[in-house]
Design brief:
The chain has five helices and 16 strands. The protein is an alpha/beta fold. It folds into two domains: about 160 residues, Lysozyme-like (3-Layer(aba) Sandwich), CATH 3.40.80; about 80 residues. The strands form four sheets. It has a six-stranded mixed β-sheet with strand order 1-5-4-7-3-8, sandwiched between helices. The two termini are about 40 Å apart.
């Protein structure tokens, strides 16, 4: 994701969890540069993490993601925000005539989903106004909790943006598969949101995992090694991730955990004393 940095002084250095990906409209600024100038104005008292316009395949960056931007009232601590250089009054046809803007919004959304493992769930207003519910929404969904704004408007083609985002970089809601380790085979499985998680063995036979948002393979259990084959992966409809392999004693084994909850638990399918 290419971005140009236009720092804003309007932010807080503490924030809550990355629970919501939020789309906004600027209602005035029509370029990422003019939006940056406004966010840099001492009288503005507002900001957003990123901005997108119709004129270039580059995003404006205004506030570091690990800081709290000031753009959706009481919801600020939980949000990652994109200001689209647009108006909430636009019709769907007008939005669809801005393909660069929609591509920018989609790429930003995909980047945030992958980086912070935010689910693809489109939030209702009730869900959006619950700080603990994770997903994607528009500013309007926050109601008075988010300062009572109406953006992005009834014409905003959220369906188009989300479809583009899910298919960004490879299709089917999945980024390109990570490179295998040595001669070992990469296995993949889609989670309930359609995003692919991967499993593989290291050259020493460690079970490795590559979920959404990670930059590289990671060992599930640093003390485990010597696996002969695998690793296979499956993800249930209730988000249990299971990774299977054959250990050095030729016994089938399994690790499992619930996505984003708890720690990996190991069980030996064929021999509970061997891993």
């Amino acid at each position: 994701m290419d971005e140009l940095w236009y720092p804003s002084q309007h932010y807080s250095t503490t924030r809550g969890p990355y629970n919501k990906i939020v789309f906004h409209t600027t209602e005035g600024a029509m370029t990422i540069e003019s939006l940056g100038s406004w966010f840099a104005n001492p009288s503005a008292q507002c900001s957003s993490h990123h901005g997108a316009d119709q004129y270039k395949r580059t995003l404006g960056a205004y506030v570091y993601e690990n800081y709290k931007a000031w753009t959706q009232g009481n919801a600020n601590p939980y949000c990652l925000s994109l200001e689209m250089c647009a108006y909430a009054s636009w019709s769907r046809d007008t939005w669809l005539s801005k393909p660069v803007l929609l591509d920018n919004a989609a790429e930003w959304c995909r980047y945030m989903v992958d980086k912070y493992s935010v689910p693809w769930t489109l939030l209702s207003s009730t869900q959006a106004q619950n700080p603990d519910v994770r997903g994607i929404c528009q500013h309007v969904n926050f109601g008075s909790w988010g300062s009572g704004h109406s953006d992005c408007g009834s014409g905003f083609p959220m369906d188009v943006v989300i479809d583009k985002a899910k298919n960004w970089g490879g299709g089917g809601g999945s980024a390109p598969a990570p490179q295998a380790i040595g001669d070992n085979v990469v296995s993949g499985a889609n989670d309930p949101d359609g995003v692919t998680h991967y499993a593989c063995l290291s050259e020493s036979g460690q079970v490795l995992y590559f979920p959404p948002g990670w930059a590289n393979w990671g060992a599930i259990d640093p003390g485990q090694n010597g696996a002969l084959s695998g690793a296979g992966i499956s993800i249930s409809s209730d988000w249990w991730v299971e990774i299977t392999y054959t250990n050095g004693s030729k016994k089938p084994c399994k690790y499992r955990k619930k996505w984003l909850q708890g720690s990996w638990a190991w069980s030996g399918i064929g021999d509970v004393n061997a891993r």
